[in-house]
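Raw record, unedited: Glycoside-hydrolase family GH114 TIM-barrel domain-containing protein
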Amino acid sequence: MTRLPGPFAVLSLALCALLLLAGCVPGTGSGAGSDPAAGPGSGTGRGDGPRWQPRPGTDWQWQLGGRLDTSVDVPVYDIDGFDHSGDTVERLHRDGRKVICYLSTGAWEDFRPDADDFPASVIGRGNGWEGERWLDIRRTDVLEPIMAERFDMCRDKGFDAVEPDNMDGYRNRTGFPLTAADQLRYNRLIARLAHERGLAVGLKNDLDQIPQLVGAYDFAVNEQCAQYGECEQLTPFVEAGKAVFHAEYELPTDRFCADSRRLGLSSLLKEYELGAWRRAC
């Protein structure tokens, strides 16, 4: 929070005290309520209220492929931001769900409607998925306005939060000499773009930079930390009262659910296609 000078600081402190008594402070990580998915914020993601922040242990559904199944009885859905309309988001809201907007912010996808907005100079090596290539995240002059438009789309459709994917390019062969400092700068930019639009934002993977980024992000999304023995690294999010949405693909639930419960993770077994099928811990 920016320090305010003189009498404005006194006024700000008084206002914060009133908000704390009300149990609702915009953009913070504490708070209570009957909704298990909600931290202090229960706004719709359109910037009309405190920013949503899910608490540790919040159950979720992650579906990026196939026909969307809206019948899963969980408080949080994570779905593709391009593939679904505002009507879908509104329907999930009517059912009491919070809705996360999946976007790739670190890789170019040739199948997206804005693919031609990316100049060839920022498109690097393939990232292992068909039609996807790493982006040169140093080129924020190019990428920031494109990502801002994508986040505008999520906000305008009524999403509560964003899941930005491919946020650890510096640890991969991208075709660019990316450094840890480049990644931190870019990931902080992504968090700022979300927050400016009233959207919560989750840190996707990027485990090594959690200590530097946990304060900038509202929750985490992780793949396969149990398979690779990395789940303990997500503890800073849980200790901060922020959910860790976690998925495994290859381990049976009896190999990771006990540890997930101990660590406070929101864990699922999913198939790689990320269709409707799920098995929760």
